[in-house]
Amino acid sequence: MASVERHGRPRDPGNDAAILEAALDLLIERGAAGTSIEAVAQRAGVAKLTVYRRWRSKDDLLMAALEHARGADLDAPPAGQSVDELVSSIAELLSQPRFRTLMARVIGASVDYPDLVTAYRARYLQPRLDALPEIARRAIDAGQLPGETDPGVISDILSSAIGFVLLHQEEMTAAEIEGRLRGLLRHIGYQAVPT
Question: Which residue among 46, 73, 93, 149 is least packed, with the fewest CB closer than 10 Å?
Fold first, then answer.
């Protein structure tokens, strides 16, 4: 996030939140190309200059809005998370229409707004991918995956399934998504912990 530092009257943090929420809403509704600083200012109920005092460009603002969208659900997987827990959390997140639309908008912006996709990958996707080798190692040690399993294959399977869900026109429930993910993992020999 490239905020602009200014001297003078302190910034109102309420304005920051309103601007970021407005930018996120417009990104979801209209996509990156259809979102403008003017529209964000109007939606947030602030002057256009108020937005420019905080972010130099629309790209900076949209990246900040994407970061703002991160909550506990979007943080990296916690240390010690199992494959089963990871699959359940991914399925729950992907079942949320707002999140799916946001991700579809980000992916759709890849040609005209590559920095937005880069920011999404670095801030959201990469921490999850970085956690997969350790998650896979624990599953191998527990006998849930064959010993020769390449963690990269798990990453490819989950990434491909996520892409499929994001491109799927019909809404899918968390249970449907989880079933698809588990089915794919079973094909490489994964055995879930009995419940």
Answer: 73
